[in-house]
């Protein structure tokens, strides 16, 4: 919740936000928090469209909503409000909440033609040239990448591309994603221009882009702790589905350096390995060809792709009664590869 306020302090665009609440009690707490934010922050009131995602079988009773009677005190800090009303969750702490499902819900209800998925710790993009550029684009299957650069210190974001490249040359900033050097080679310009990518984009969570609602959804088997794999799979499927990828010059994103994108997560790797084999069938690209066409720069991904899989793929049928949070129902075998 606190991250929402911090994000909106730097952005004036519309935000579609989906919250997962695992119980009726936490649903009431979340509603109270939204009420507090809307009453005490004009940016939240004017810019955020809220959506709530609850597990099947959770029913809201009148007594669960008693927190709505709490009178909001706008002198209280958001962090203190969240802590006082116990808005945290063990699911959030261990990453077991359905992040991909929530992101799909938020995107489905976003009313803008062009959408992007940003993370709370990634500063939003404020360049007013971008909306003017997108208003002239008629290609619905075009994806425009925004290069991300990171710094290890508390440096302010460079004012333009020229200042960024100077910071890179001084060793004060580095590109978060490999393979977008085409953007750096382009001379700085005042007006936005799109540069078509001549090679496939590496799979990485740090790739941010602007696209229409036609791009593939996040696969809902990935939970929050699998988010690195979810983003990589989405970027791969966009390329397999024939979307045209461009990088926007001279726009870029800037943030403090984080931990490596791909963490060692056996469960996420297993889901990703199954997903790769599904995509190879859907788009008629066998894995050796897939590996050759879309090279993986991260050794962890290479290991996943080349490893022999002993586990059978399970179906992902949402009408199955055991389906929960977007995970495949246990014991329901689909096809075996």
List keywords for this structure.
337 residues; alpha/beta; five-stranded mixed β-sheet; three-stranded mixed β-sheet; 13 helices; globular
Intertermini distance: 43 Å
Mean pLDDT: 78
Q: What count of helical segments does DSSP give?
A: 13
Spatially, the strands of the biggest sheet line up as 3-8-4-9-7
Give helix and strand order, one letter per element, not per position: HEHHEHHHEHEEHEHEEHEEHHH
Write down how many β-strands occur, each being a DSSP E stretch of 2 or more residues: 10
**What class would the helix/strand composition place it in?**
alpha/beta
Instruction: Bin the strand percentage.
Output: 5-15%
Written overview of the protein:
The chain is an alpha/beta fold and 337 residues long. Among the domains are: 96 residues, no CATH class; 126 residues, no CATH class. 35% of the residues lie in helices and 13% in strands. It is built from 13 helices and 10 strands. The protein has a 5-stranded mixed beta sheet, with no helix packed on it. A 3-stranded mixed beta sheet has the order 6-5-10, with no helix packed on it. Strands 1-2 form a two-stranded parallel sheet. It is globular, with a radius of gyration of 21 Å.
Task: Offer a concise description of the structure.
Helix content is 35%, strand content 13%. The strands form 3 sheets. A 5-stranded mixed β-sheet has the order 3-8-4-9-7, with no helix packed on it. It has a 3-stranded mixed β-sheet with strand order 6-5-10, with no helix packed on it. It has a two-stranded parallel ribbon with strand order 1-2. Helix 10 packs parallel to helix 11.
């Amino acid at each position: 919740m606190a991250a929402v306020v911090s994000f909106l302090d730097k952005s004036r665009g519309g935000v579609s936000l989906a919250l997962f609440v695992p119980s009726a009690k936490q649903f009431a707490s979340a509603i109270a928090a939204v009420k507090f934010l809307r009453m005490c922050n004009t940016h939240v009131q004017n810019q955020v469209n809220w959506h709530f995602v609850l597990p099947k079988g959770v029913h809201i009773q009148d007594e669960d909503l008693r927190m709505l009677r709490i009178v909001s005190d706008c002198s209280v800090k958001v962090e203190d409000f969240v802590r006082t009303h116990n808005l945290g969750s063990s699911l959030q702490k261990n990453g077991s909440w359905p992040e991909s499902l929530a992101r799909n819900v938020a995107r489905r209800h976003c009313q803008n033609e062009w959408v992007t998925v940003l993370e709370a710790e990634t500063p939003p993009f404020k360049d007013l040239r971008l909306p003017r550029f997108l208003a002239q684009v008629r290609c619905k299957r075009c994806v425009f990448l925004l290069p991300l650069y990171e710094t290890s210190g508390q440096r302010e974001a460079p004012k333009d591309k020229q200042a960024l490249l100077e910071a890179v040359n001084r060793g004060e900033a580095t590109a978060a994603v490999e393979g977008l050097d085409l953007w750096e080679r382009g001379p700085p310009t005042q007006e936005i221009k799109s540069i078509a990518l001549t090679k496939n984009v590496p799979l990485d969570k740090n790739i941010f882009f602007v696209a229409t609602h036609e791009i593939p959804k996040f696969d809902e088997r990935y939970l929050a702790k699998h988010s690195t794999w979810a983003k990589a799979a989405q970027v791969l499927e966009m390329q397999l589905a024939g979307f045209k990828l461009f990088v926007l010059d001279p726009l870029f994103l800037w943030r403090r350096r984080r931990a490596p994108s791909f963490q060692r997560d056996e469960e996420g790797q297993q889901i990703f390995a199954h997903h790769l084999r599904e995509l190879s069938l859907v788009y008629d690209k066998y894995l050796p060809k897939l590996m050759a066409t879309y090279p993986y720069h991260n050794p962890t991904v290479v290991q996943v792709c080349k490893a022999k899989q002993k586990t059978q793929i399970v179906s992902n049928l949402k009408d199955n009664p055991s389906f929960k949070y977007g995970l495949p129902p246990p014991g329901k075998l689909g096809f075996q590869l």
